[in-house]
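Quick note —
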Amino acid sequence: MATASVVLALVAPAAEAAGAGAADSAGRPAGSDGCAAARGALAASLDTLVTRHGIPGTAAELSDPRCGRWDAARGVADRKTGRPMRAEDRFRIGSVTKTFTATVVLQLAAEGRVALDAPVERYLPGLIRGNGYDGRTITVRQLLQHTSGLPDYTAALVQLPVEQWRFRHAEPRELIATALKLPHPAKKWHYSTTNYLLAGLIVEKATGHGVESEVTRRILRPLGLHDTYWPGDSTRIRGAHSHSYFPATDEPDAPLADGTAWNMTFGGAGGALVSTPADVNRFFRGLFGGKLLPARWLAEMKRSVPADPDRLWPGARYGLGLIASPLECGGWWWGHGGTVPGGHRALGAVGPGGRSIALALTAVPGTEQAEADYRAAAETAFCAPAGDQKREQTS
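Predicted structure written out below.
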């Protein structure tokens, strides 16, 4: 579920990169040559992922205060039928779900119903005990920040044959119990979806409702995210969606298998949501636009610590459900990435000057260069000129 390692028929669809003076997907004219350059740069980044690295399909939506909103897509959403990829298609967003869950926890903190520096034991007595793990010494903040010292239960799952757990229902407490049997992480910052299953249970304890209900009530409905939903035990994605693909074997250059059908209860509050690039983009714009949290609590969410570069990438930092990544052109983007075992890869982020992007891939990049080019797509989206790009400091 981690962003970089497992948290964005080669025909181009109609959403081509436009030249100067063309209209964006919202019907507004591109206002400058810089806007057209930004469009072209984004489309070229998607082309690279498809033509050079064999990602079956890629799509993105980008929003810019000067240039408006537009989308682009390359490759196919379904290898069997050749249906072109579309930015409107639903897909599994994996660990981008963590930002939704963290936002609800911060809302509850703002309401005085959860204390970020209180021990997990206050809300979930006795749940974190044994093998040297103790909920009395782990805070809610540490869960959201991945500094709890808890291992990631997904490390145990991926050691099993895929078909043994792919379609199986999983309960959060069962997965947490699995995590507590694992060795202690070697580093202080350790990306662990276990943390977010616990955060989801804290939401339930504080509100009397499951985290799915609270995310829906507090985020999805107010922001009008009509294409975002919790799939529960359903292994299918509702409505128009892209398929996802993963290597059928561990051999190099293994053929791709269709991984679209999956029971995502194993991801829960840390990775189960289905969405679209447009909805992911709208969520991050809403979050950073002050529609979900008071300024004080958004600032709290952005208090970050250095992340392990082996789990993310060099220079990355982690706040409370947010990744901060430095840009070569100056400043930072803030957001989150996600990966699911079936092959969908997601990224949603806001950068300097209010520009935002959401990326969707139908397969996980399979080489270091492919992974670098995936991250470069976000870099390109934020650094292509279309106006003043203001620098921002992390805390």
